[in-house]
Specification:
With about 425 residues, this protein is α+β, with helices and mostly antiparallel strands. The chain is about 20% helix and about 25% strand. Strand 13 and strand 14 form a beta hairpin. It is globular, with a radius of gyration of 23 Å.
Length: about 425
């Protein structure tokens, strides 16, 4: 269990909070690239880390991310006209470029220097693969651009979706580093979901419902390893990397694409789950992409605002008969919604003072400890890890090893992302 003050520290990411300061030392996903599909397309509202922003793409294809509200009278620039290199507020015609700089104030004389003194808060934003990443922190401490493998592979080898999750970011993240629940919650999907079925490792998940856990420090975060019994005195290991503060990658299954997530705070009671699939050595097939768009694997079927069609307002379309018959363990369709339904059921921010953790929660415990230490160290001027290229060139691993071999020794450099090198899978 946690003290209330520590629970608050880990959960709150708004401006001026220790965890909010920590998040602002990293490039974070803010939009799918498809949300700004063309030059001069409509602007898009962005809320991240409790800040309300507006994103747009100007006439020259440049991306901008800035304060949502016009400096004149506070009108939301979501209503603005995107035209001729900037956003024009429809109220009185003030116009801003992608840096937030006012470039036209029609009521002022042409000789006036008024525009030069009006600038909205803005943040750098870049397109990497099919995502737009932004950096909201101290410009003097801006890290290099991210080098996550899903966003460095050739076009056609990766796919990203997003979904609204109506709970705090941390309880969503904690599900991402908890491998023990797979044997229960997702057991009905391992051989039915087209993005999972057919992998040899599935039999170990079904056969051993009590995995042993080992958690070791990795320079950018943690390696959370779940060990299950395999054949002939061997162990089946599934090694999940967690990179500070909010990146997780699911161990692969056979030649299926590799899955993972960014858990991005919107505010203290909601987050975005950016879920990716990629393959390091081949194009995704048409069948795989079709399955992803249909909400299979770690993805979900959503409305136009990226809220899942199965949500808390309709009890996630839970099917008690399917649950009773064992079609799905929880009666809820889809791996993504099986996770988010239970995480949302805890409430917007779970009260961790009441929980009772066990040995299989070792990864969650150590992740909380590492997050807290990183946030407090930053307050003392110590820059965090996880925002460097060497921390981000990481892979998850699924492998069978002899019982007398440690998983760290056994995986060797299989956890290091290397362009064009096949993934270690079982």
């Amino acid at each position: 269990m946690l003290r209330p003050d520590i629970n608050d520290l880990l959960s709150q990411t708004g401006p001026g909070t220790p965890m909010g300061d920590l998040f602002r030392r990293y490039w974070q996903p803010v939009l799918l690239a498809e949300e700004l599909p063309s030059d001069d397309c409509p602007p898009v509202r962005v809320k991240i880390l409790s800040e309300r922003l507006i994103a747009f793409r100007d006439s020259d294809g440049r991306y901008g991310l800035m304060d949502e509200f016009c400096a004149h009278r506070g009108v939301s620039l979501w209503f603005a006209r995107n035209e001729q290199g900037g956003l024009r507020c429809p109220y009185h015609g003030w116009k801003y470029d992608v840096t937030g700089q006012a470039i036209e104030v029609p009521s002022e004389p042409e000789t006036s220097s008024f525009c030069a003194n009006v600038k909205l808060k803005s943040y750098p934003i870049v397109k990497l693969g099919d995502l737009l990443f932004a950096y909201l922190g101290d410009p003097e401490r801006q890290p290099p651009l991210p080098e996550w493998e899903p966003y460095t592979v050739p076009e056609g080898q990766a796919f990203t979706s997003k979904r609204l999750q109506e709970c705090n970011w941390l309880q969503a993240l904690e599900g991402g580093i908890d491998s023990s629940h797979v044997s229960f919650l997702h057991s009905g999907n391992l051989e039915s979901d087209p993005l999972f079925k057919g992998a040899k490792g599935n039999q170990y998940n079904r056969g051993d419902l009590m995995p042993s856990f080992e958690v070791v420090d990795y320079e950018g975060g943690l390696l959370v390893a779940a060990r299950r019994n395999a054949e002939q005195g061997h162990y089946y290991w599934r090694v999940t990397p967690w990179v500070l503060p909010n990146f997780t990658m699911v161990p692969p299954r056979g030649d299926h694409p590799v899955h993972g997530h960014f858990w991005v705070p919107i505010d203290d009671e909601n987050c975005w789950a950016y879920s990716f699939d990629y393959h390091p050595t081949r194009q995704l097939t048409e069948q795989e992409v079709t399955a992803m768009r249909a909400g299979m694997g770690v993805h979900s079927e959503n409305d136009d605002a990226y809220r899942p069609l199965a949500n808390k307002d309709n009890d996630y379309l839970m099917d008690r008969d399917a649950q009773r018959r064992g079609v799905t363990y929880s009666g809820i369709k889809g791996i993504a919604l099986q996770d988010s339904s239970l995480q949302e059921s805890m409430g917007p921010v779970v009260d961790r003072t009441k929980e009772r953790l066990v040995a299989t929660d070792a990864g969650i415990i150590k992740a909380r400890q590492k997050l807290r230490k990183a946030a407090m160290a930053l307050q003392e001027g110590v820059e965090p890890v996880g925002n460097r290229a060497k921390d981000q060139r990481v892979r998850s691993v699924a492998i069978v090893l002899p019982a007398d071999q440690s998983f760290v020794e056994g995986i060797g450099d299989a956890m290091i992302a290397r362009p064009g090198v096949p993934q270690t899978t079982v």
